[in-house]
Amino acid sequence: MKVFVAGLNHRTAEIDDREKLAFNGNKLVEGLEKFKNLPGIKEAMILSTCNRVELYANVENIAETSESVKTFLSEYHNINRDHLNKLLYIYDDIDAVRHIFRVTSSLDSMVVGEPQILGQFKSAFEIAHKHKTTGMLLNRLMSKAISVGKKVRRETRIAEHAISVSFVAVELARKIFSDLSGKVSMLLGAGEMSELAARHLVNNGVKEVIVANRRYERACELAKEFNGRPVAFDEFLQKMVRADIVICSTGAQHFILTKAQVHKVMKERKQRPVFIIDISVPRNVDPEVGDLDNVYLYNIDDLKDFVDKNKFERQKEAEKAEQIVEDALEPFLKWMSSLDSVPTIVALRDKSAEIKQEELIKLLNKFPELGEKEREAIEHMAAAIINKLIHPPTMALKENGEDRDTLIAAIRRLYGIDETESKEK
Amino acid sequence: MEVILFELALIFYFASSVVAIIFLFKSVMIISRSMLVLAGIGFALHTAYIIYRYVAAGHIPIANFHEATSFFSWCIVLIFFMLHFRYRISLLCAFTMPIVMILMFSSSMLPKEIKPLSPLLQSYWLGIHTIVAFLGNAAFALASGIGTMYLVQERYVKSKHLGGLFARLPSLQTLDELNYRLITFGFPLLTLAIITGALWAESAIGTYWRWDTREVWSLITWFIYAIVLHARLTAGWRGRRAAILSIVGFLTILVAFFGIKLLQKGYHVFL
Predict the structure, then answer these.
(1) What is the pTM for the complete model shown?
(2) Active-site residue among A1, A50, A364, A378?
(3) Is B157 in contact with A294 (Cβ distance < 8 A)?
(4) Is the peptide bond between A282 and the residue preceding it cis, with omega within 30 degrees of 0?
(5) What ipTM, to 2 d.p.?
(6) CA nearest A2: which of A95, A104, A125?
(7) Annotation says A50 is catalytic
(8) Is residue A425 classed as helix, strand or coil in its secondary structure?
(9) Bridge partner list, A247
C-alpha cells in the first residue's frame, strides 16, 4: 500500500504538451478506467486541468507502476516516451502526500492562492469515486487533501491579495465605486494591455465600453469584442464626460490628457468620480490631473508597486500555508501505516484458520466413527490452540510500538504469509 | 437610584468605544461582535434610564442640560444601529462612539435631579420640538462620522497608500451616498425643529423669533446644510467637499450646543 503520483504541470510542460496529455471530457473516465486496470494499481484517480495533469494511485510497487504508467500515457496520448520522461514528475510515499496537499492548497499553482484548483480537484475526486476507482486509502487521502485546502483558504490570506495589474485595477475601482455594474469604461488607445484591463472590468460588471483609437478600424474591432461603442479619437474628450473608468494606453509620446481638459470634463459630469488608469509608457496623462477633486489617477508603476507588494504578502501567507500542509502530513502518514498491521493480522488469522480446517478434515476422515459430541470437542480444541497461538503476535501488531514495522516484516516471514499471498496471485 | 442605569450605560458605551478603537487596528470577528454587543447593552440601559425619567417626571425628559445631552447621545446610538442593520459598516462604530462619549461624559457631570418644569416650558411642543431637533442633529452627527471615514479612505486612494484601513473601509461612493442620505434625512428634521420652535415661542411668549443665541446658531447650521445639499445638486459638490462640510456642520452644532450653556443667555439656557 503506497501512494503514487505521476504528473506534469505548468512548470514542467509547455501548454501544447499539457493539452496533448490532458484527459478532457469523455477521455477522463475512459483514461481513468484504463489507468485503474494497469497491473499493481489498487486505486486510481486522475486530475486534469489546464495547468496540470496528475495521476494518483494506491500501488504495490512504485518502480513497476512508474514504468507501466509511462507506457500507458505515451500509448494513450500517442506521445514520444523520451519526451514524456522529461515532462513527468513522480512522487511516492510522504512526498506524494505532500504534493497532493500542496495542490489542493493552491501552493503548486501557477498563481499561488488561485481559488479554482480546489473545485477542480473535488470534481476529479467525485468522478473517481462515482466510478469506484478509489478505495479506502485514496478516499481518505483525497478527503483529507480537500480539507487541508479549505483550511489553508480559511486560515491564511493567501487568496486575498490581487497579483496582476488588471486585478489591482479592479480592486481599486471597487473601492472608488461601490458597484461596477452600470459603470461606463473608456479605452483610450486599443493596445493589448488596455484590452486585458477592460476584459477584467467587464467580467466584474462594467456595462459599457467606449473605445477611442487613432486608427478607427481598430477601435471598431475592439469595441465589437465588448459590445462597446467606437468613437473617433478627436472626439474622446466629449465622450469622456460619460466615462467613470478611463484606461489610457496610446503610443503617444506626450500627455494627451491635461489638467485643464480633465477639469472641464469633471465640471460637465458634475464632479462624479473618475478613475483614470494610465498604463502607457511614456505616460499619457499629466500627473497633475490626479490633484483634481474626485479624480483618481494611477499609472502603470503605481499598479505594479501594489502587485509586487501583494506578491510579497502572498509569499508570506504561502509560508503559513506550507506549515499547515506539513502539520497535516504526520497524522495522515500515521493513519496510513497503522493500516499495514491490519492486513497482516487478517492474513495471519486466515492462514491459521486454513491450517486448522485442513488438519480437521484429515483427522475426521481418518475416524469416521466419531460421534457428534467428540467431533465438536476436537474442533473446539483445534480452534482454542490456534487462537492461543496467534493471540500474542496479534496483540503485538496491534500495539503500534516503535518496532512495529520490524514486527510486521518478521511475522510475515515467520508465518510465511508473503509466500501464501504470492501463491494465491 | 435610576442614576445607576445612566452610569452603567456610560460604562458600556465606554467599553464599546475602547473595543472600537482596538477594532481599528485589529480586524477580528470577536472584536467587532463584542464592540456591537457592548454598545447594544449600553443602549438598552440608556433607553431604560430615559423611560424611567419620563415616568418619574411625567414629561419628556429633555428638560435640563443633563437630559438633553443624554438624549442627544441616545439618538446618535439609535441611528447608528439603524444604519448598522441596513449597511453593516461596523467600522462606523469607531467613528461614532467618540462623539457619544463626549456627550455622555458631559452629561454625567451635570446635575441630574428632576426639578419641576418651568411654566414656560409646559407645553406639548416640548416633546415634538426636542425630539425632532435631536434626531436631526443625531443624523448630522453620523453624517460627520461617515464624512470622516470618507476623508480617511480618500486619503488612502489619493496618496496611493493602500494599507491600513483601506481594505476594510467601504468604497468612496458608498460613503458619499450615505453621507448624502443622512443629511437629506437630518435637514427636514432641522427645518421642522426651527418651525416648531418658532410656533412654540409664539404660544409661550407671543413672538415667533427673537434672535436668541440658540435660534441664531440653528439658523447658521441650517444654512450650512442647505449649502451642502444645494451645492451638491447644482455644482456637484460631492465627495471630499461634502464630507468636509458635513464635519464643519456638526462642529457648528456642537459649538452651539455647548456654547449656549456657557453663555447662559436666552430661554434655551437649560438646553
Answers:
(1) 0.71
(2) A50
(3) no
(4) yes
(5) 0.86
(6) A95
(7) yes
(8) coil
(9) A187, A277
